[in-house]
Fold these 4 entries.
Entry 1:
Amino acid sequence: MNISRVLTVLVSVLLLSCNSGLKVKKVPDDVMQKIYDEVKTPYKYGIVMTSGDSTKMVDSPTVFRNNDKWFMTYIVFDGHGYETWLAESYDLLNWDTLGKILLFTKNTWDATQKAGYVSLIDIEWGGSYKPEKFRDRFWMSYLGGSDRGYEAGKLKTGIASTEHIDIPQEWRCEGKPVLSPDDVNARWYDNATIYKSLIIEDKEEYTGHSFVMYYNAKGDTARYESIAMAVSDDMKTWTRFGNAPVISKYRKGTICGDAQISRIGKVYVMFFFGAFWGDGPQAFDKFACSYDLIHWKEWQGADLISPSETYDRKYAHKPWVVKWNDVVYHFYTAVGDHGRVIALATSEKLN
């Protein structure tokens, strides 16, 4: 990184600190420790979702609850591109695949890539985990593109919606991306490609808007992946928030991505994954804490999940964490001797 880039990053971080117009309250170390003790999942349960086809890869779980049943959206890569699938469960352990909800299309901006992530899920720790409707519809953001291959081409963020979130039917996609590296106001950290996104409701309006999107992206000169923010009041029009990422290592080749937000008491917790940070495992799950959804403090202690089993010996990453009946369930993407699958770790030994 050259001197001009260093100065740009420093100025951008300072500008981000001023965005809220509020004095930043840092999360104390003892509170961070209490959060870690609450969310840690030392027991690896095993693989809970595969494609049933060794040539296909399964990725990125999103878990929610509706009508007394659990559901998981996940994405499948078949060598051609991404499609999004839906599964159901009664116990968070045994899952049955229902079918596709985002499919390949022809001659669209997102023809071969539709990797979806359900929006507006209740973020209360141990809460309902129910997705909320907005304007009588359920919503989903998705990674979209028209190039064939794994995370191929210049990826953008799309929005889809449905009236029935627990039925395996195709969601209605908006006709154009809502966030793109080609936008005139694209930032230095997101003007190359945009990956996974998560949308939550900002009930306290810390950002001055109703909805917040956390997304990971890469810039054409910042050749590393960071987590950044965008805001909206209507789910369709999105504006970048701040002039710097909220989570980043600012080093070439590093990745910070796939945020999930929970609220434990007064503390917002961001589960995310890191990769290629240096010594240690290649990919692992971490967390950060905030009082305002904008300024985040990273946990410096042990990883929440890291490779330890044959099925996750290469990567253990991309978290989705829930607490139910006093047990913490940490779903993650595992890469090892079973290919790319979805695995589970828990706070108590269940097998």
Entry 2:
Amino acid sequence: MRRAAIVDTGARKPSSVRRANFWSSRATMRVASEALPMTSAYFSLILREHGTDARDRAALLAGTGAGREGALEAPGEITLGQQLRQVRNASRLLGPGWALATGSRLHAATHGALGVGAVSAPTVRRGLEVMTRFSQVRAPHFRLVARDERDVVRLVPEDRVELDDEERIPLLDIVLLSTQGLVEALLGRPLHDARFEVSYARPAYASRYADHFHAPVRFGCTTPAVVLPAAWLDVECPLADGAMFEASLASLTDAARRFAGRCPLVARAEHLVAAHGERLSFGAAARALRLSRRTLSRRLHEEGTSWRALLDARKKARAARLLRDPELGFGDVAAALGFDDTANFGRACRRWFGMSPGAYRRRAAALG
């Protein structure tokens, strides 16, 4: 009997076509990732530290979309693409090693709710959980992963975006130094008993690392990491503050939820709403997103939402938080949300939650 031929029903593309598709896919992912929103705090710090004269400022701002004076269309918010462009500009202007001084100047407050949540945690373990769970909320180009290995914990920054060396190396230095600062705040002392590992070869300026890192640095490792003794995990934090910790977690959770699985444009729009609320008009939002009003309206509609719906969702979330505070009267909550009277606020609550403000507060109290 003649054996039937095995037929590959999916035609196999030539390797050159597969490679082209692979690189095209990576380029598309990079473009989409660059549209993600992020804080402008790091952008502003780099500009302030290294833009010491008009010429240097212009070089750092080139191609970023920020104005000549460094003013951003939406204060407090930029895109990842703008940040990466500034990092490339800095690498070309300042040369290798420029990020060491910048990373050393970052402190908990520079990292917003992430930094506050980490240093106000009850223990080092809980602080590291905040850092690993929410790292990409603050800087979407990477995520921090904790790995338990016998007597040590490795904090590994994993790239979430394909980066060039002139982006990756300075960003890695900044991430490692930022992690050093946060962990030292958690411990209340320097990281002399830790170590740092980087995934690039020992550079010509390696002697400068001792001026910024407080523990040994190993070059040419397989993966970058901050390596900590596991015994530190249960150390109580000197800056622990339960109320501040819980408030930071709530803020970070909201931010993570906005970005999870969302279209980059919707994530950016939600970021604007979270930062500015109704103070930012639809026209100003369109300008910040570099779109016409019509295009922004159409693209939000294609994603199943609208500017009004985003504003309403923010107001609903704020209402839910305020109503959980028994010290606030319903009139106070209504005023804080911009309602003229409590009757209009009551109607909004029934639309949002299917119940009156009083019923929502009682249910929230019962659920703890």
Entry 3:
Amino acid sequence: MAAAQLAIGESSNLAQLCLSYTYNFKDPMFVKYAAILAVIAQASIDSTKRTFAVDIPEEIKRIKTELNIKANGYPEFWLSIRKGFDVGRVNKDLKCPMNFVVSYKYPEVKPNSSTIPFERFVKKHPLTEKKRIARKIEALINKYSLELYKYNIKDDDAEQSEYLLLKADFEMMVSEIQRIVFTNKYVDIFYWLINKAFMIDGRAANNQRRDKIIIAKNKSLLMKTLYTVNAEAFLDCFASKLT
């Protein structure tokens, strides 16, 4: 996989270099190699799960030699995409669209109207005497969040066994929360959790730093959990129309 990653980067960079050369040299070789390198980049991506009748690293090496980069040099934009790149290897006579893109100064965009405050999208439900219950639910969600960080699982590459384990843990967490909040009377707890995660009124975090609040780091999990526990109570935390 590491070798494939290197090949993907190398072939993509060479393809970009070939495209830059096409704006400066009439040799059709550069157009041909740009197309070939695009195919090699795709083959490099697929090489982690299948084999091809071509030695990808050797093919990249061969094309790189034929491009005669030492004599032709690199376009100026290379200094922007490669940190610490040797300026002596840049050929300032090379012209290409990427040089323009890199040097272009985009005008500052100032919106005509201010953003809509988050608090206009919610219905406030002040929490009075249930803070202990709210903190217990928060702790359950935080514990599951930490499990996610431990496994570092993404939907597209998760191992089936680990995914099923986390799914079972999630269902267990939801079941435990449902035993605590089983009616819509607990909508104020839902709002308190949302308020703390998104810091809607600025005081929900109890003056804690945002980066120290676990529930604020995994807002999507919080929203999914609350909706799964009680969709009606969850939706009652949000305004049906802007006020």
Entry 4:
Amino acid sequence: MIARWQLLDLGFSKRAIEHRLSTGRLHPLWPGVYAVGRREVTRKGMWMAAVLTCGEGALISHETAAALWGIRQERSRVIHVTVPARRTPKGRGIVVHRRDLEANDKRRKWRILVTSPTATLVDLAAGAERRAIERDVNEAAQGDLVDPERPRRALDKMPRRRGIRELREVLDPHTFRLTRSELERLFLAIVRRARLPIPLTRQIVNGFEVDFFWRELGLVVEADSLRYHPTAMKQTNDLLRDNAHTVADLTRLRFTHWQVRYDTQYVIETLTAIIQRLTPSSAPR
């Protein structure tokens, strides 16, 4: 990708640029922005071209930045670009957001200017549901783009803008938990709805990683995804894990994907009953 102003800076004359356009060595994508050598352009190439089209201070943002970072898959061919507030560029298929960003909010990946992972999460959080925000944060964490503490600290330094409040609420250290799947996030939503204590996640207990762990109650809960298959090796591993927890005098519960997604009342009633039984009585003896 190359812009007309870049060609002029390199010493090309207007006539030389027009000649390369007429002979197919340059292919216009947006006014003043060209693909070099061939008309076919990769998605990354289109992102870079959109930044060049929007000019000085422009960078990929919002859903497009999420796709670039690997936080979400791109659902639309529209490209989101943020530019300084004073500028009003236009381009077919480009959604322009006008806002002045701090230096810490800017990054470069694959030579493309893009909002930082934390700034991208803020943009995505604006007006979004809690479950969607949790999914984005977890995807960013699994991609080693952020850890929960880094966005919390960064939010305190950001100028006030949409998305900060929603993201800060989700990242509350008393309630936020890293998860590996949508099923685990659904289970945590059930726990919050029932107003039960929030469990730890991704913990190693008796040598095995468990889905959810209430350490003070000695309770382990597993949520079986649709990928769960009772093969002989899987059965053996589950037996070893369950026996290890039994030896350690832990209480175990297991819920299926169907129960977590479609029979939430059963999950709430079962979990509530177990937690009430395991919670030390506060009544005097």
